[in-house]
From TrEMBL, chain A:
GO cellular component term of the entry, any: sarcoplasmic reticulum
Keywords: Cytoplasm, Sarcoplasmic reticulum
Family according to the record: Belongs to the protein-tyrosine phosphatase family. Non-receptor class myotubularin subfamily.
Assembly and binders: Heterodimer with lipid phosphatase MTM1. Heterodimer with lipid phosphatase MTMR2.
Cytoplasm among keywords: yes
CDD domains attached to this UniProt entry: PTP-MTMR12 (cd14594)
Native source species: Saimiri boliviensis boliviensis
Protein name according to UniProt: Myotubularin-related protein 12
Pfam families named in the record: 3-PAP, Myotub-related
Job description of the protein: Acts as an adapter for the myotubularin-related phosphatases. Regulates phosphatase MTM1 protein stability and possibly its intracellular location. By stabilizing MTM1 protein levels, required for skeletal muscle maintenance but not for myogenesis.
GO BP annotations, alphabetical order: phosphatidylinositol dephosphorylation
UniProt subcellular location: Cytoplasm, Myofibril, Sarcomere; Sarcoplasmic reticulum
Signal peptide bounds: none
This protein's record includes keyword Metal-binding: no
TrEMBL record, chain B:
Membership in a protein family: Belongs to the protein-tyrosine phosphatase family. Non-receptor class myotubularin subfamily.
Record-linked SMART domains: PTPc_motif
Name of the featured protein: Myotubularin related protein 6
Positions in coiled-coil regions: 516-543
Ribosomal protein is among the record's keywords: no
Gene Ontology MF term list: phosphatidylinositol-3,5-bisphosphate phosphatase activity; phosphatidylinositol-3-phosphate phosphatase activity
Gene: MTMR6
């Protein structure tokens, strides 16, 4: 997390800062870390260390970095630290050729390139390092970042053991954890959902189902035994209630069966359930099946893996090469389109609840991926409480952590199955960023908060994002002694989204075609259009319903997260930071004047506390602040345009002589 | 007027271009001598100046009537449906005539009367004084002097009378050089950087062909580099793509041969010609006129139009200039073909990066007056003021405004003016309401007697300058703070408020800036209230009534510094009547009281949209 640094005493000699419980595994000296600078590559010598928590580079000349700009920095992860879970891909360079590194190596590379999940790129030259050390560090890094891991090997556990006393929660932190009946009752009361819904403890001790949290909320007339019938499948679970009484519900689908008899039983079971929630006092229910006719997880995975390549840039030559095709590359990744579709779906559901007073039931195989995404987006748009920091954290706790989103698998923390790695949560944060970007005054937090939150997905000292379900977390966190038998690392045998190959292929093809049609025509239902247009034509109430713009140009790239490490993208003394710092400056002035007035009013001499001027000298701040420090800027007048000519799609016009030529019908 | 047959048509429908549900407004269409006016059933008025009309099109008859599509130069597109074909035809014909005038004297500026007397009008014209501006830059000085060679427009018709040249330059040198330059546009000073003692100069392409030389021209270039005491070499920047420049050699024109000129460094920067720019903008507008843009159509269309790439090229050239002067202390000579399109873009943008004066409202006017109007950018031809050659029309100045807009986006604190200012200027280069942009060069303007017969735009903008102030502007900064814009593709975006300024459905309702501007307005109202209250208090005091109460009141209202007023505004705003019903969720937790207060402060009590359009309509009345 980013804190203001109270002038931390920096030791002059370069030492490795270890967290409690952190152990050094291997290291190598005289490693050259390349610094991207124009196209001429030079670097810094230092030590490359691999611990059970991170890979760290310790430059021999660290003092150069200790300037005033470092007052904002991540306290856990230094500029040259990469947590093991943050490593995305490792490449080796052999005779100028770049190859992906994995498994046992026969030959060791002269250069190591590490692509991180937070989109940093590190290049280490090993040419001057002793062969022995190269072998040790390279195979060490590959093993500890790429090889499948056991859950109990997560650094989380050694950290928790060593730093036990630090786990005291800050009393000011009121994030609702939803791990008790009380929390759910409080949420029911807050949203006035307690008339029709009840919190149940039928799953206490995870006796019914390991996928569901110990406590959750269901419609009041529903007998609790029903929950046990299909281990929680087919049960409408309450997410949130709107002020008009309509509610957002979710349901995980019943297991697919071949046997007609069982199917019959399932059908009558569902009929009973639907009967209950279709009857007054319940509103009309609209079912949204997120498994079909909407995004597939594979689409998200493919889009993101294309999208991130735009930012994983090895050198500035590569940068300028891709920059020419930036817009079309951006588009062909379709990441922005996926964001747009998520936002659109959430607006559709909002319209049902807000304008048509309907209940919406989200249906998904396990109700733990797109369900989490859509239901949290809907709440964020409809419930201003979710736009406070505490409210937002509680929302994540409720919908994602307790909702059983498989963070462990989706982030591939254990490197057990690359296919399961899908950035659903990141997609959610990106959708939230669009909202924050479009309506900054409606949120208590800023984009920097979201960026730091996205980084913490890969920092294994917080347990929040390192389990597949609350059950898995509880069993592991409480019984973390090694003597205990190993708990199943995958608690619930999930039906992955890759079922039989053909099945998914067909589904995907169909899904694609349908979504294309839906998208291109853009003829949405009249209700939706009207709702959307009428909201946008009124002045915004930041404390009420909040809808994003979803027209093409409105969906933007989350520059702070994706572009922050690319020096070419920075604007010295400009960007949004400049606006922010000016506003902060003005607010500080207002505040200090206010204090003076109060002082005069009470006619007493209160000690004059100078408001800390955090962003002084804003003119020289870089637009990449607070993530990248001031970068060099090239001094020679150069034209980066030369590449443009290569495109030359206007040849016929350009070849014409200038201003005098008659060009026919141009 | 002879062109108008029908002045009023009722039951006309106005379609919303971007609405997918084909919404429309019904109202009455009026045709006046200067405007087309549509008043809908809510009494909302849409004014369209005839000069703003770029094209009128009559589409095939439909069941509901005859569709009439009007495209404007300010990127407004209106789609009317006129019930009777006969009316539609009349209006169509009238608009065709009215929108394309043959003579300057028929343009709106010659009939526009803002009720000012002659001396007020003359004062308006004297607001921008270029001699004063050169003095501000620091010329004439020991290196640069005012030349009277072009006093009678004898050397170059498209240049202004007053030109600054290196002080050693004799008249024969000037005459010789001008004969060697296309349209006689020889190298002269455009901007002088006092600190660096380096200059930006401008000219047109040399008539060098494959081998021709001109001693006088070589001498003049040497004089320019010598006028810089710090650095003896100078850059010659040809803003054209190399290919175009080479093609020109076959026609006896071309570019400077580095071997013939001592101490020059030659550089092409590759900005495309006016025809490429025109068709690129056309493509951009086509891409963006599709209904309900999806993410996908948008970015590929944006890229294939090439528009942002052209903007980037202009920006890169300006950065080149700024760096040459700041980093290398070298003077720069800029030209293209005739030196009135790309050269104006690059010189003015380069100066803007270098000198913060041009980033103020007044300074920006001076910059336009200097590098565009006085140096003969052909406004009338490029904007198609008269019914002329459509091949001469090109959005060169629009591009310049867009470059400036990108800079304001990248450096929100650096400019005194806001986006509305740029939009308003763009509005008036086409409106023909003021004399500033009429004609193609100063000589022509003098012949038209514009100063006697028309008004200048600048005093009207200055009078209204509150509308154009950027609330985030930091005026404290040093004069020579250089802007270093970023030109990676990510930094360039579609300027929606320009190209879609009349499409409400796509318009962002408000920005932080609007919020701040509105707060400023409210502050003023509150200040007035305070004054009223104070005077009431005084009256009461005189009546010797309750003394204590007065003191109390005086304490809580204390108008001192503007920032303090802001905080006051925050407090009082919650007391203001809130007109719309708050869409607050009733059941929201009492635990976030703090947050609800915060949200209330920000919500409401601001006009729905800052009506730029309305402002324009009023100004053009």
């Amino acid at each position: 997390e980013i804190h203001t640094n109270e002038k931390e005493v920096t030791e002059k000699e370069v030492t490795l800062h270890l967290l409690p419980g952190e152990q050094v595994l291997c290291e190598a000296s005289t490693v050259l870390k390349y610094v991207q600078e124009d196209s001429s590559q030079h670097g810094v010598y230092g030590r490359l260390v691999c611990t059970d928590f991170k890979i760290a580079f310790l430059g021999d000349d660290e003092s150069a970095l200790d300037n005033d700009e470092t007052q904002f920095k991540n306290k856990v992860i230094g500029e040259n630290d990469i947590t093991l879970h943050c490593v995305d891909q490792i490449y080796g360079v052999f005779d100028e050729k770049k190859k992906t590194l994995f498994g046992q190596l026969k030959k060791y590379p002269e250069k190591l390139i590490i692509h991180c999940k937070d989109l940093r790129v590190f290049q280490f030259c090993l040419r001057y390092t002793k062969e022995e050390e190269v072998k040790r560090i390279v195979s060490g890094i590959i093993h500890h970042t790429q090889a499948p891991k056991l859950l109990k090997r997560l650094f989380l556990f050694s950290y928790a053991t060593a730093a036990e006393n630090n786990t005291v929660t800050d009393p000011k932190n009121h994030t609702v954890m939803f791990d008790s009946l009380k929390d759910w009752c409080w949420e029911l009361e807050r949203t006035k959902g307690n008339m029709k819904y009840k919190a149940v403890s039928v799953n206490e001790g995870y006796e019914v189902c390991e996928r569901l949290p110990a406590y959750f909320v269901i419609p009041t007339p529903l007998p609790e035994e029903n929950v046990q019938r299909f281990q929680g499948h087919g049960i409408p679970i309450w997410c949130w209630s709107c002020h008009n009484g309509s509610a957002l519900l979710k349901m995980s689908a019943l297991p697919k069966e071949q046997d007609d008899g069982i199917l019959q039983i399932q059908k009558s079971f569902l009929d009973r359930i639907y009967k209950t929630i279709h009857r007054p006092p319940y509103e009309i229910v609209k079912t949204e099946d997120l498994s079909s006719n909407f995004l597939s997880l594979q689409e998200i995975q493919t889009a993101y893996s294309k999208f991130k390549q735009l930012f994983l840039i090895d050198n500035s030559t590569e940068f300028w090469d891709t920059d020419i095709k930036w817009f079309s590359l951006l588009e062909s990744s379709s990441w922005l389109d996926i964001i747009r579709r998520c936002l659109k779906k959430a607006i559709e559901i909002t319209e049902c609840m807000e304008a048509q007073n309907m209940n919406v039931l989200l249906l998904e195989e396990n109700a733990s991926d797109l369900c989490c995404l859509i239901s949290s987006l809907v709440q964020l748009m409809m419930d201003p409480h979710c736009r406070t920091r505490i409210g937002f954290q509680s929302l994540i706790q409720k919908e994602w952590v307790m909702g059983g989103h498989c963070f462990l698998d989706r982030c591939n923390h254990l490197r057990q199955n690359d296919k399961e790695e899908v950035p659903v949560f990141l997609l959610f944060l990106d959708c939230v960023w669009q909202l924050v970007h479009q309506h900054p005054p409606a949120f208590e937090f800023t984009e920097t908060y979201l960026t730091v939150l996205s980084d913490s997905l890969y920092i294994p000292i917080f347990s929040t994002f390192f389990f597949n379900s609350p059950h898995q977390k509880d069993t592991n966190m409480h019984q973390r002694q090694l003597s205990l038998p190993l708990t199943q690392s995958k608690s619930s045998p999930k039906r992955g989204f890759f079922r039989e190959e053909t099945d998914h292929l067909i589904k995907n093809l169909l899904g694609k075609r349908i979504s294309k049609l839906i998208n291109s025509s853009d003829e949405l239902q009249d209700n939706f259009r009207e709702f959307y247009d009428s909201w946008h034509s009124k002045p915004t109430d930041y404390h009420g319903l909040l809808l994003p713009h979803i027209e093409g140009p409105e969906i933007k790239v989350w520059a702070q997260r994706y572009l922050r490490w690319i020096p070419e993208a920075q604007i010295l003394g400009g960007g949004r930071v400049a606006t922010m710092s000016k506003l902060l400056e003005m607010m500080e002035e207002v505040q200090s004047l206010q204090e003076k007035i109060d002082e005069r009013h009470h006619s007493q001499q209160a000690p004059q506390a100078e408001a800390p001027c955090l962003l002084r000298n804003s003119a020289r701040l870089s637009s990449l602040f607070p993530f990248a420090l001031l970068q060099r800027h090239s001094s020679k007048p150069v034209l980066p345009t030369s590449g443009w000519k290569a495109l030359g799609d206007e040849d016929d016009l350009a070849k014409q002589e200038d201003e005098f030529v008659d060009l026919g019908d141009v | 007027m002879e062109h108008i047959r029908t002045t009023k048509v009722e039951q006309v429908k106005l379609l919303d271009r971007f609405s997918t549900s084909n919404k429309s407004l019904t109202g009455t269409l009026y045709l006046t001598a200067t405007h087309l006016l549509f008043i809908d059933s809510h009494q909302k008025e849409t004014w369209i100046l005839h000069h703003h009309i770029a094209s009128v099109e009559k589409l095939a008859l439909t069941t509901s009537g005859c569709p009439l599509v009007i495209q404007c130069k300010n990127f407004r597109i209106v789609h009317f449906i006129v019930p009777r074909e006969r009316d539609c035809h009349d209006i169509y014909n009238s608009l065709l005539q009215l929108s394309k005038q043959a003579k300057y004297e028929d343009l709106y500026a010659f009939s526009y009367n803002p009720k000012q007397n002659d001396s007020e009008r003359l004062q308006g014209w004297q607001l921008i004084d270029l001699a004063e501006e050169y003095k501000r830059m620091g010329v004439p000085n020991s290196h640069w002097e005012l030349s009277d060679a072009n006093r009678e427009y004898k050397i170059c018709e498209t240049y202004p009378r007053e030109l600054y040249v290196p002080w050693t330059t004799s008249k024969p040198i000037i005459v010789g050089s001008s004969k060697f330059r296309s349209k006689g546009r020889f190298p002269v000073l455009s901007y002088y950087h006092k600190d660096k003692k380096a200059a930006i100069c401008r000219c047109s392409q040399p008539l060098s062909g494959f081998s021709a030389r001109c001693m006088e021209d070589e001498h003049l270039l040497q004089a320019i580099s010598k006028a810089n005491p710090v650095n003896r070499y100078m850059y010659v920047v040809d803003t054209r793509p190399k290919l175009n420049a080479m093609a020109n050699r076959a026609a006896g024109k071309g570019y400077e041969n580095e071997d013939n000129y001592s101490s020059i460094r030659f550089q092409f920067v590759g900005i495309e010609n006016i025809h490429v720019m025109r068709s690129s903008l056309q493509k951009l507008l086509e891409v963006n006129s599709t209904k309900g843009l999806s993410v996908n159509d948008f970015y590929s269309g944006l890229e294939s139009s090439g528009w942002l790439r052209h903007i980037k090229a202009v920006m890169d050239a300006a950065i080149f200039l700024a760096k040459a002067i700041m980093v290398e202390n070298a003077s720069v000579l800029v030209h293209c073909s005739d030196g009135w399109d790309r050269t104006s873009q690059v010189c003015s943008l380069g100066s803007l990066l270098l000198d913060s004066y041009y980033r103020t409202i007044k300074g920006f006017m001076v910059l336009i007056e200097k590098d565009w109007i006085s140096f003969g950018h052909k406004f009338s031809e490029r904007c198609g003021h008269l019914d002329g050659d459509p091949k001469e029309v090109s959005p060169v100045f629009t591009q310049f405004l867009e470059c400036v807009w990108h800079l304001t986006e990248q450096f929100p604190q650096a400019f005194e003016f806001n986006e509305a200012f740029l939009l308003q200027i763009h509005e008036h280069i086409h409106s023909c309401q003021f004399g500033n942009f009429l004609g193609n060069c100063q000589k022509e303007r003098e012949e038209l007697k514009l100063r006697e017969k028309t008004y200048s735009l600048w005093p009207f903008l200055l009078e209204d300058q509150k509308k154009y102030l950027n609330p985030l502007y930091s005026s404290k900064s040093h004069r020579f703070i250089v802007l270093e814009p970023n030109t990676v593709s990510f930094s360039f975006k579609f300027w929606r408020n320009m190209y879609h300024q009349f499409d409400r459905t796509l318009h962002p309702r408000q920005s932080v800036f609007n919020i701040i501007m509105n707060m400023n307005e409210q502050n003023k109202q509150l200040e007035k209230d305070i004054k009223d209250l104070e005077s009431k208090i005084k009256q009461r005091k005189n009546k010797q009534t309750d003394d204590i109460l007065t003191k109390e009141l005086l304490h809580s209202v204390h108008p001192e510094s503007p920032t303090f007023k802001t905080s006051l505004c925050f407090k009082e705003q919650t007391l203001l009547p809130v007109n719309d019903s708050l869409r607050t969720i009733e059941g929201s937790s009492p635990a976030d009281n703090r947050y609800s207060e915060y949200a209330e402060e920000f919500s409401k009590s601001e006009p729905a949209v800052v009506s730029l359009e309305y402002g324009v309509a009023r100004m053009t009345c």
